[in-house]
Each structure stands twice: as structure tokens, then as C-alpha cells.
Design goal:
Chain A: Its EC number is 2.8.1.10. The complex is a heterodimer of chains A (about 260) and B (about 70). Chain A is α/β, with parallel strands linked by helices and about 260 residues long. Chain A contains nine helices and ten strands. Chain B contains one helix and five strands. Classes of the chains: A alpha/beta (about 260), B mainly beta (about 70).
Chain lengths: ~260, ~70
């Protein structure tokens, strides 16, 4: 069976889903269900003490069915990311962490140095570390050297829906990889998922493209199918591109 | 007693002297939250024994939707 192995975990689904920006909890629940995602990302934030009983998506989930992947979103330094990761783990619900150290509020591109520092510390502390990173092959290698369990290069800026902007770099990262490569951020459409998987990525993590689609539930299903199509295409081995045509029908036996 | 709770100055009732009592005052006993006091995470098993003192910086965090 074709499974995705991250650290000690094993998954059937290669689509990881974010849980932000959904307009209502009901739609979100349905989208998660049809996506068949097994890993869901969350952020860690202060509880609103003005309304502490506010309904919360996590509390509606059957936690036996999902692996939680809290992120360190909001962190601009390695120190902040480590603090958030420790808080997430102290919940007792998970030991996975999506390391995310942002370097710039406008592009939300990762700070490579802070990202590497935080990843190293969290690996040493025993977390299963999935690091959101630039699509930089050398940084991806350095992250693997400090022991991360998966590298998650962005396809394009978070929430931009631009799809894969540097296919070449992504290919270099994938070819060099010793841990799963999960394309994270910037996915806009099912075609982007298929493309990432055809390039040989091990998975896709997306959020906005589903949450803000006109029909998030239908889009969740489409993304699932995009990931599956791309994965199967990758495993099947595509034909080489040729410059000229090559007839599909026999050239022999033509009626004269 | 006045503490800094989730970034805001809050005056606590006299009987709130432990982390456990603080969580109970917001009916959070059954909720999935994590508490940090003066930069240190408080283990769930230590809520009852962990005192709260005047001027403490306390964070109560939880999981929210995110990507």
C-alpha cells in the first residue's frame, strides 16, 4: 500500500488540510470529511476570555481519527516558534509541529535562519518536525541535516493561490530528499496539487484554496482527487516530451 | 490580586489562588487549554498545586483554525 510516512506516523492520505479562514464550523466539518485528510493544522492563540465557551472546531473533531499538526504561525523568531511549539505539545494531544518562522509580514515568506534554528531545537526536544520553508534546495538539505521529519517548501506565498512558481527548485528539492517533501502554501487549484504530486512531492498542505472557494466542500473533494491523480501519475511514470508528433494509430494497413 | 492575564490586567477574586481555581472561574476545566505562568508551562497535573501570585503573567492558550 502506498503510504506517507512521517517520523513514526503513517498515513493513507497525502493531502494535509489547514483549518483557518472557514466561514462556519459546519462547512468546515464537511470539507474536512470529504477531503479525507488525516493531518489537520491548527494555530495556537490566546483564549478569548470575554467568551471562553465560544464553539471551537477542535472540540468537534473525533481526535482518534486525526493527527493534529499545530503550527508556530505568528512567530518571527526561533525563540517565539519554540515557545508556541512547547505550548502545543503541552496539550497532550500531539507531538508533531509545523515550524513556521516568518521573515516578512507582506510576503509571509519564511525567515530561513530562524526556521533552521527553531527546527534544530525542536528536533532535539523530541518533536516530529515538519518545517515550512522557502523553495530553496540548499536550505531543504540543511533542514534534513538537523533532523527534520519532513520539509514543506512553499509553492508560492501563503494564501496567494499562485500555484507552483518555481518548479525547477521544487524538483531539485524532491530529487535530493531523504525525508518526505510536502508542498505547503500557495496552492490555488486541484491542478496545482496534481502538478506538485507529479513532480514527486510526497504530499500537499493547503488551506485557503479550500476555505475560501465558493464551495469549500466541493473544492475539498477536488483537491483530494487532484492529489490522488498526481500521485498515481507520478507512480505510473509519464512519457518523455517529444518535439514532434508520434501517431497513436498504426501507420501500416491503410486503405488505398 | 492583580495579574496580567492574556495580555490584560485582571483583578482576581480572593478565592482564586491556584491555576485550577483560575480555570474554574472561566469554566475551563473540561476545555483543551494550555497554561503558561511567568513563561513556564504548567503541567495539567500541577494545576491544583500551582499558586497564583500578584503580578503574575499568565497565558491561557488553545487551538484555533490555522494553516
Amino acid at each position: 500500500m502506498d503510504t506517507l510516512k512521517i517520523g513514526s506516523y503513517e498515513f493513507r492520505s497525502r493531502l494535509l488540510l489547514g483549518t483557518g479562514k472557514f466561514t462556519d464550523l459546519d462547512t468546515q466539518g464537511k470539507a474536512v470529511e470529504v477531503s479525507e485528510a488525516e493531518i489537520l493544522t491548527f494555530a495556537i492563540r490566546r483564549l478569548n476570555l470575554e467568551n471562553p465557551q465560544e464553539p471551537n472546531f477542535l472540540e468537534q473533531l473525533d481526535l482518534k481519527k486525526f493527527t493534529l499538526l499545530p503550527n508556530t504561525a505568528g512567530a518571527y523568531t526561533a525563540e517565539e516558534a519554540v515557545r508556541i511549539a512547547r505550548l502545543a505539545k503541552a496539550s497532550g494531544l500531539c507531538d508533531m509541529i509545523k515550524v513556521e518562522v516568518i521573515g516578512d509580514p507582506k510576503t509571509l515568506l519564511p525567515d530561513p535562519i530562524g526556521t533552521l534554528e527553531a527546527s534544530k531545537i525542536l528536533v532535539e526536544e523530541g518533536f516530529i518536525v515538519l518545517t515550512y520553508t522557502n523553495d530553496d534546495p540548499i536550505l531543504a538539505r540543511r533542514l534534513q541535516e538537523v533532523g527534520v521529519h519532513a520539509v514543506m517548501p512553499g509553492a508560492s506565498p501563503i494564501g496567494s493561490g499562485q500555484g507552483i512558481v518555481n518548479e525547477n527548485n521544487l524538483r531539485f528539492i524532491i530529487e535530493d530528499a531523504k525525508v518526505p517533501i510536502i508542498v505547503d502554501a500557495g496552492i490555488g487549484s486541484p491542478a496545482d496539487c496534481a502538478k506538485a504530486m507529479e513532480l514527486g512531492a510526497d504530499g500537499v498542505l493547503l488551506n485557503t484554496a479550500v476555505a475560501l472557494a465558493d464551495n469549500p466542500v466541493l473544492m475539498a473533494e477536488a483537491m483530494k482527487l487532484g492529489v490522488e491523480a498526481g500521485r498515481k501519475g507520478f507512480l505510473a511514470g509519464r512519457i518523455a516530451k517529444k518535439r514532434y508528433a508520434s501517431a497513436s494509430s498504426p501507420t501500416e494497413g491503410m486503405i488505398e | 490580586m492583580i495579574v496580567q492575564l492574556n495580555g490584560k490586567k485582571v483583578e482576581l477574586a480572593e478565592e482564586i489562588t491556584t491555576v485550577r481555581a483560575l480555570l474554574a472561574s472561566y469554566s475551563l476545566q473540561e476545555k483543551i487549554v494550555v497554561v503558561e505562568r511567568n513563561g513556564e508551562i504548567i503541567d495539567r497535573s500541577a494545576y491544583e498545586q500551582t499558586p497564583i501570585a500578584d503580578g503574575d503573567r499568565i497565558e491561557i492558550v488553545h487551538f484555533v483554525g490555522g494553516g
